[in-house]
Every structure is written in C-alpha cells, then in structure tokens.
Amino acid sequence: MVFLRSSLVLRRSLGLQRLCVSSSPIRGLATSASELKKTGLYDFHVANGAKMVPFAGYSMPLAYEEVGQVASHNHVRTSAGLFDVGHMVQSIFRGPTATAFLEWLTPSSLSSLSPYSSTLSVLLNERGGILDDLIITKHAEDAFYVVTNAGRRDEDLKWFNQHLAEWNAGESGSKGPVEMELLDGWGLLALQGPKAASYLQTLTSYDLAQLTFGKSAFIPVEGGFNLHVARGGYTGEDGFEISIPPSQTVEVAELLAKSPVQLTGLGARDSLRLEAGMCLYGNDLDEGTTPVEAGLTWVIGKERKENGTFIGAEGVREHLKAGPPRRRVGLVVEGAPARQGAKIFDPSTKEPLGAVTSGIPSPTLQQNIAMGYVLNGWHKKGTEVDVEVRSKMRKGVVTPMPFIKPKYWRGAA
Amino acid sequence: MQSILRKAGSSRSTALLRSQGMRPPVFGRPQLSRTLITKRYTVEHEAVEYDDATGLGLVCITDHAQSSLGDVVFVELPTLGTKVAQGDQIGAVESVKAASDIYAPVSGTIEAVNEALATQPALLNKSPEEQGWLCKIKLSEPSEMEKLLTEEAYKETWE
After folding, report:
1. How many Å apart are CA A120 and CA A102, to the nearest integer?
2. Would you give the distance in Å from CA A320 to the centre of its chain?
3. B98 CA to chain A: closest CA distance, Å?
4. How far apart are CA B61 and CA B58, in angstroms?
5. What is the mean pLDDT of chain A?
C-alpha cells in the first residue's frame, strides 16, 4: 500500500490540495505544525484527544480519540455532533449600498431576501466561473453577514478589497460607501443532527421552533452569551451554525460539547456533506465551472437571470440559454468506491464523458456514492455510465442528489 | 532457498523454540521442525509470511497500516490464478476517507484469496495479520524474501 497516495486522496477529498499548489505532496505533508494557523479551539481539540491535520492552512481536528469515522458520521445522523468551523472566513458588509454591492458580486436576489435570512451564493469571475461558494445572511438592507471558505481566503479577500475600492470610488459608491469588517479570530461552531435543536433548547429561552431552516437570530445562551445562530449546515441534518466572539469561543464549545453531542472532525464532515449532495470548493467547484454546470442555477435570483448586472453574468447567461456543456451529477457506483479523478465513460462506445470530483463509500447508505461532471445529455436520472477505478470499469448510475433525505426544520407541520 | 535458510537463522530458532517449548506435545506435528516460516515487510505496509514447506506466502497489511486507515469498508482482492510480479498492484483497501493500493510484495501466482473480506471487510481492522489476510502467493522467486524488511527495519520506516 502506498500511504503517500492514500494521504493524497484524503487530502484531496478534503480539499487540501490548495496547501501545496506548487510543492510536491511530500513537502505538503511535511508542512510543520508551526506554519499552520490555529482556530481559537486548538487547545480544546488537543485536550479532547483530537488527531490534528493540516486543512486549508489550519491545523484542524480530523477525528477525536478512538471514535472511527463511520461511528462519528452515524452519531451525527442519529444524534448530534459539534464541528469547529472557525477556520472559515466570517465578515460583515455594511453601508447604504451594501445590497447593490453584493448583487454586483453575486447572482443572488438580496434585495428581496427578508432580514435574518440566509442564502447559498457564489462569487463569480468575469467569465462566470465560480471563485468561491458562500453563505450570505441579510441582517438589513445595509448589513450582511457573509461566510466564505478558508481554502479561498486569500483569493476572496483580494477580490472583495479590489471590488470594494472600485465600487466606493465609482458612481454607485457615491450614494454611500460599503465597508467590509473581517471577523478575524471569531469562533464558528456547527451543531448538527436530529438532537441538535433539543440540546440547544436546554441552553436558551429563545423558542427554537420559530427559527426555521435558513433563518438566523441573536439568541441568548446560558452563561450570559448572546450569539448569532443560523439554522442550517453542511450535513443534511437539522442544525445550527453559531458565531462566537473570540473571548467566548472556548466556553461556548465546552457548553455545547456535552452528551449527547459528540465532537466531530473533518473526516465525518466530508462524508456527511457528500451524502447531502453538497459541494466542496476545490473538488466539486472551481474557477472553470459556472453555477449552471454545477447544478447551482437555483442560487441565481429569478429576476436576475435575464437582466441581472452581476460580474460573470454573460458567461452564466450563455450556459442558461444554450445549456451547459457539462453538468454536475450524483452517481452510485457498483463494486469499488470511485474517488476524485476517476474517469467516467460511455459504456457502449467507451468515449470519455467526464470525471468524479468527490466519492466515498457512504456510511449511511452502504453504497458507493460520488459526484462528478458528465457531458450534457448524460445527466438524467437513471443514465448508466462506466466509471474507471484501478483500470477496471465499474457500473455507475446517475442518481439524484441529495443521496439522503435532508431533515431540515421547516416549521411545525 | 538455501540462502533464505541461512539468512533466516534467527527466526528458525524462534520457530523451533516455540514448537518445542510452548506447544503442548499433542499438537506437535513432526514436520513442524522442518518448516521454516519467515515474515517480512514492505515500506508500503504489507507483510508476507513465507512457509518454505508449501512455497506459499501469506500476504496481509500491517496493524500499523490498518490503524492509520481507519474503518476498512471495502477490500478489492486479486483474481485467483493471476501471475504477479513483485510491485504489481494486486488490489486495494478502502476506508471511508481513502483508498490505498495493495502491491504484490513478492512475485508468483495468486493461489488463494480471503473471501471472508468480501462480506466482512472489518476483519482487516480486527485482525489484520491473521483473520484479515488478503491472499496467498505461490512464490516464483523465493529469494525476493531476502530483500524485504525485517520487523525491526519496517518499524524504523514509520516510527
């Protein structure tokens, strides 16, 4: 067995390739811990027996103690898990023209978004390729809370700063400038699973039943905290993402990491998000992919598809009108799990159709699941393809995503 | 083969010691004293246990390998009767997080595969070097055993 390769697969499947863009995997692995950034919970993880690994420039917990990835994954599906996602980049955009500014940078309809609601969105380059995916929460017309990926920190911040300067110097900005405040050092915890709400409810007087999927609120939490809590997550389960001021992060983590909640690492995070059909930037999304190809057309505001003046609109509209050249699909693969890079073929002509971008043996479904890109026309449910794993063709079937049924809280029936 | 016998002098004495001293006489098989079992390792974390009486090498992954991999959920085994050269990829071990190729530690013919792993891949975690064995190779070049690592040398590669 070649562990170098297995580590590489792991690193790639977790989106770590950015760490060593120009260096060999060996050097990437040898990156010393001192060069890696730490979230406010680093000592907390170590004290809880975490196996720390480099991820997106941070030292992050892969798993805790002897809890295997499958057990950890299953715990989140059946009970509740707590994830440190404090490596992600949190920021606030403020100013009289903040809505218009973010509608220039993204194709989302933010003017019609109601306050304290969130939406998944994308930052697009001039060609319509995805620079990053992000969550935008509107607090008011002039205030937005934005979470972007740690692995894209440098690219995103450069992009934001460059465009803020352009905006504020131009005509649009003259109606009122926009400023970005980076919440550097702030904590971000994701509490996920069917028991997440009942556990969090024991710590707050706020009626969580009122906080439905995609909504957020400042919630008083036992111990004198008042925290920004957004209902949603990256697992397909009901759950919350909780933003915490730097000085309170450890205390809040201690409060939340009690039975039945289990600390959960990056390993389970990756298998949970893939079962939920969610993209990992760097694997499933990149600058050469438009949101239409990525199956993220739904993030584009209805009224913005025709006439929206956002960066990358032309490229997006081309794909909307003519159809994208390729599409992101879910696959169930027989036999061996197909991982990132596995090639997809037409089973009769053996012509190449595309490649897998993420793939795992699904702990919940006991089937090999994957997502990848295939030529347009091969994306329909039930289409049979061949997927090459270790020089052998394996049968794959295009399968709708999410692979599991999401359990978001949309309010009392 | 002769050279292996010489090289493996130390394990032979251990094997003899075990057969004489630790096994109850009732289980003692006369041929045991003539059998030489050598266990060697590769830097890729495979082990091969060679029995010179049968000419078969039992291939497995090491305990260190299984603990690094985590929960094994799928094992791909070679096809019976396949002729393999040392270093050929003969299968793979997959956990949720990663796939690791298995390479033939020695050249020869695949004489047996551990079918139990198809339904119980977790045997690789529970008992990697015994119940979780991968395959048996009939060695075509037993001298290849000499070039593999001893247990101590193997441990030094990752410790």
Report:
1. 13
2. 24
3. 5
4. 10
5. 92
B148 found inside a domain: yes
**How confident is residue B7, by pLDDT bands cut at 50, 70 and 90?**
very low
Out of A1, A70, A363, closest to residue B61 by CB: A1
Q: Tell me how far apart the alpha carbons of residues A170 and A387 are, in angstroms, rounded to a whole number.
A: 51
Q: Does CATH place domain A3-86+186-275 in 3.40.190.10?
A: no
Assess A275–B contact: CB distance below 8 Å, yes or no.
Answer: no
Domain boundaries, chain A: 3-86+186-275, 89-182, 326-413
Q: Cβ–Cβ of B69/A6 closer than 8 Å?
A: yes
Binding residues of A for substrate: 241
Find the closest chain B residue to A8 by CA distance: B98
Looking at residue B34, its pLDDT comes to 63
Question: Cα(A386)–Cα(A397) distance, rounded to whole angstroms?
Answer: 8
Contact B99 A337 (CB under 8 A): yes
Cα angle A69-A70-A71, degrees, rounded to a multiple of 5: 95
Which of A261, A273, A259 has the alpha carbon at shortest distance from A81? Answer: A261
**Are A70 and B71 within 8 A, CB to CB?**
yes
Amino acid at B119: T
| CATH homologous superfamily for the domain A89-182 | Aminomethyltransferase beta-barrel domains (3.30.70.1400)
pTM of the model: 0.85
From A363's Cα to the closest Cα of chain B, the distance in A is 8
- Rounded Cα distance between A268 and A272, Å, is 6
CATH superfamily membership of A326-413: Aminomethyltransferase beta-barrel domains (2.40.30.110)
Could you give the ipTM of this predicted complex? Answer: 0.71
Percentage of the residues of chain A whose pLDDT score is greater than 70: 92
